[in-house]
Structure of Phosphate acyltransferase:
Amino acid sequence: MKIIIDAMGGDNAPQAPIEGGVKAAKELGVDIVFVGKTDIIENELKKHVYPSEKISIAHAATLISNHEEPAKAVRSKKDSSIVVAANMLKNGEGDVLLSMGNTGALLAAGLLIVGRIKGVLRPALATLLPSARGAKMLIDAGANTNCKPENLVQFGIMGSIYMKGVMEVEKPTVGLMSNGEEEGKGDELTKETFPLMKQAPLNFIGNIEGRDVMEGTADVMVCDGFVGNVILKTVEGMGSVVSRELKTMFMGSLLTKLGALFVMNGIKGFRKKMDYREYGGAPLLGTKKPVIKGHGSSDAKAVYNAVRQAKRFVESGIIDEIAKNTN
Amino acid sequence: MKIIIDAMGGDNAPQAPIEGGVKAAKELGVDIVFVGKTDIIENELKKHVYPSEKISIAHAATLISNHEEPAKAVRSKKDSSIVVAANMLKNGEGDVLLSMGNTGALLAAGLLIVGRIKGVLRPALATLLPSARGAKMLIDAGANTNCKPENLVQFGIMGSIYMKGVMEVEKPTVGLMSNGEEEGKGDELTKETFPLMKQAPLNFIGNIEGRDVMEGTADVMVCDGFVGNVILKTVEGMGSVVSRELKTMFMGSLLTKLGALFVMNGIKGFRKKMDYREYGGAPLLGTKKPVIKGHGSSDAKAVYNAVRQAKRFVESGIIDEIAKNTN
């Protein structure tokens, strides 16, 4: 299996993608092809010892930064790392694409270059979020700001297939994100979606609310990409503020530092549970071949976990499963 | 000043509303009228020592529970505590109404009985949320699930007036909740709202994202009530999960318990900063007289703080200010 990694994307590129990719090549039995400027990648690779037969480079002269207009950049920058990587995926020069770069550009490349599965109206970005009951999926986490009821139903179907095939959840529960649990609650979109969800081949548990995100009430939380993006960033933002506050609290005095020592293991366990890096990246569901968006701030460990997830994504065969269930 | 308290609403009624109300009568120099079943209120009042001239009872034979359809219940249950209380407010038998009960019913009573300020298209529920930079306002937190751009602009105006008049923030900053900071980001609603916000008499700082909720980037965060409700409940849910996890962590062993002792003051400070009870209730903005929704799970302390806030709301004179600025 060959993993295509955009070596130029993300806050810590090229260091993190390359370190994480090299580790994956050594430990996960996968081949890696790094896409980006050859000289930069070669320089970075010199820092590592690795099995050279498992690692290769595909040259891309430029890159798409986070500040560029995604669809326009994908159309015009044919030699950017994301576009080159997406074309390689399309042409079978790799089995799955992982990028930590510009989210919009990766989505556009997925849509315009890799292409939609026939029957899928809108591919969606699916993020795994930590919760009190383990990793749960939020779909759509930002690919489609304006959705129709049929889109949301497909998000539920694709998300269920992923949670079953890749995350090994038997009969994943699906909840529709709303402003109240009762069937009558919601905005126009979710009110129209509710009856369709009930009829769809889903383990639908009805409306869920914001409080269910961290409680982990549903395995798959369905919403449009605007609401999903707001939820995702609210949770991330709250996580980083809480982390920071706890740190300040523990570093306050000699006594609190001593206290912190005693609770260190617990804190580590808690942080690990809430750490996005443990959960790999966000799969784009609905494209003909697997595409994964790694977190922009991914370090090498997060990249490594995203590669592990990419491998499971390919092995699971869920793309065929999605194609069968969205026709 | 007379505060009308719905003694029957909330998870801890009648104990919490009455204990909190009595404390407020003693310490804040306000008169309190408790609305609900006379015998129940009298029984509860027996537990307290209080200045009897500052406390009175208005009888309401029934109540609206959390499971009733709000608008219908308000129309049909004329003798419910919320409806009796709203009529008292309308008729000048009190200066402000505070209820911890059914949110929808309170909103409906505010709209149907107390009435909109002329010029206000839609009253909105405004919640104060803790953040790294202190209390910030989320408006609309759930009154209006489907909004138009003009509604959001008015939410920004009303929220700014409240933050200035009641929370004493000079030139409150206003952010439009979206899925990205750039001007072009958003769904149909927020894209149409953005240019109107720019023209409005607001200290508008542009789009904000979910991560800005806890960072406290804007004093007033504007969104429709569907998105606002999802944000509010996501934050609340995350707060309670984090609290629970930390508790489990600290109570894990003798050693961690000892450690927890050393950091106890810090934890208390952190919890206080993140505690909704410190922030009072959620004002309904846009009605002719002040209405405040206290948190359903309010204890006596939260009720007391909500009364303190209700008093400031009345004294601030911001209802006239809103009327002047929404014509």
